[in-house]
From TrEMBL:
The keyword Transmembrane helix does not apply. This is Mannose-6-phosphate isomerase. Its cofactor is Zn(2+). GO terms for molecular function: isomerase activity. Its EC number is 5.3.1.8. PANTHER family: FRUCTOKINASE, TRANSCRIPTIONAL REPRESSOR MPRA. The keyword Isomerase applies. It catalyses: D-mannose 6-phosphate = D-fructose 6-phosphate. It comes from Bacillus mojavensis. Keywords: Isomerase, Metal-binding, Zinc. It comes from the Bacteria. Residues 238-315 form the Mannose-6-phosphate isomerase cupin domain.
Amino acid sequence: MTQSPIFFKPVFKEKIWGGTALRDAFGYDILSETTGECWAISAHPKGPSTIANGPYKGKTLTELWDEHRELFGGVEGDRFPLLTKLLDVKEDMSIKVHPDDYYAGENEQGELGKTECWYIIDCKENAEIIYGHTARSKTELVTMINSGDWEGLLRRIKIKPGDFYYVPSGTIHALCKGTLVLETQQNSDATYRVYDYDRLETSGKPRELHFAKAINAATVPHVDGYIDESTETRKGITIKTFVQGEYFSVYKWDIDGEAELSQDESFLICSVIEGSGSLTYGKETCPFQKGDHFILPYNMSDFTIKGTCTLIVSHM
């Protein structure tokens, strides 16, 4: 049988640094004025997304992975491997680091490691990210953290809309205020906070830090994530390849008119970040718009996208 695109209802998360951009830019019905995250395509136990259409409507992505592995090309593994998020960073995020698979496996009760990447959808002028550090040894890293020498330690990079950053596990990093980002990552929530600007939780307690784990997990000295960007233009579409890495490959599809495409992967994750269009496969057509997220399953027939739109697309 011809497989159809599987659309999802996202899950939203309130964050101390969140705002209203997910509502303002995408029209989502957000939780509050401090909504920081949209878990758009998620099979993580802390926020599985729900199927919005078709024969599997109402099931979670986790259930689909467990019960219908044929939709994902029979890929092995006990969990869906990727997690796609939209992040509204109204205020600075905490400075943090994520473990690799080995360290997470030893210390985080079955979580995966967390390599991730960011596509900057929008940001205010002169917005920044924190990406890496200057310490040459773990001892120097501990000394600089203990002395509070954040200006000397942290590498700040100016960003602009359309930028892409690959953030391997072990990278000390943070998104800074005034950024709207699409994040593709391993399906993990393992995070070690290094510094949080002395902010308090709503309960009035300081936010938890994880010094020992952060130091253990951090890559020292810092190594930039390697990306090899390339662009291909053909009738109706420009495809920009951002990264083809160990855990995921990520692309941007800019469609203007009509583009003929094929699905040659175990599955494709698609997030519409601008514009609208329609996807035709076999005799079926389904419309989509900005803010929609869907998976094109394995064995889906060749398809055509019509419209003027931008999608961020990823696969294993």
